[in-house]
Amino acid sequence: MKVSREVKTAVLVLSGIALFIYLFSFLNGQDLFSDKETYYTEFDYNSLTPSSPVTIKGNKIGKIEDIAYDFETGKTRVEFSVNPKLVFSKNSKVRLYPTGPLGGNAIEIIDANDGQLAKPGDFINSEIKQGLMSTIEDDLPKVTAGLDGTLRSTDTLVNSLNALLVDESDRGLKSAISELNTTLKSFKDLSYSIQGVITANDEKVSSILDNFDKTSKDLSELSAELKNAGLSKTVEDLNKTLVSMQSMLSSIDNGEGTIGKLLKDESLYENLDKASKEFQLLLLDIKLHPARYRRILSKKEIPYEEPTQEQLKNN
Fold first, then answer.
1. Which are the contacts of 106, defined by CB distance < 8 A and separation ≥ 6?
2. Given a cut of 50, is residue 195 above it in pLDDT?
3. Do 119 and 90 touch, CB atoms closer than 8 A?
4. Are 12 and 93 within 8 A, CB to CB?
5. How confident is the model over 56-75, as pLDDT tens digits?
6. Fold classification of 34-134 (topology level)
7. What is the C-alpha to C-alpha distance for residues 268 and 274, in angstroms, rounded to an integer?
8. At what angle do helices 173-200 and 132-166 cross, to 10 degrees?
């Protein structure tokens, strides 16, 4: 069948109109061929635009359909649509949040996960998350106050430094720099003098270093000779001897052995002291009465007479 030119023109015009409508809707964020479920929420003010994204956990799942001012409540009523596959609770929160640091906003569904599923047309409560600019705006007075104090402190510091630079007294910075310069010059002259002394006595310094090197070698050889001579064994034997003497002195201090008993037994000391005194008296009696001991074999007994104090003192 032959189609007339008028029919073709009509079909072409209708197709163009349909394409224009689709493209216009698409550019406004609307998809005429997609299914969607619509919900509602409201805010105290409007910072959204039609076709602003609706997200969940950072994923876009819908968009803003309509924004209208409610004259009865004084709030902004927002209609938004989401993918029908999305399942969330009617007790969830719709959070308004900024999409960038300098502007642009979107809404996010914070799912309550309590099992009470939302149905298309339900009203979802909302909340607002502050953006960077709002936070800066709230904190700006504090920041300004702190900055004002910092600027005043900086101004005081600069004035103090200026006064220190201008000060010509002994405490001024110029005087301190001048004294430091003088000290550095003196140190430089001293280093030149030391260098001259070293240069003038180069041979002596070399001789001293040679002697020191020779002495070090001699000490090294002496150490080797002492090592080969068995010094370590001698020290070890001496250490053993000291340990033995320490053990012997400990035994004596504990009253062990003959010497220990002599030093620790008080009765033995008293007996020896008594015997010594009696022996002394015997010697004195022999000295005073020798005839008594010459007649030992005689039957005549000569009685013992205790010496007087004067005799004891004289003898």
1. 48, 52, 53, 54, 55, 96, 97, 99
2. yes
3. yes
4. no
5. 999 999 999 999 999 999 99
6. Elongation Factor Tu (Ef-tu); domain 3 (2.40.30)
7. 10
8. 70
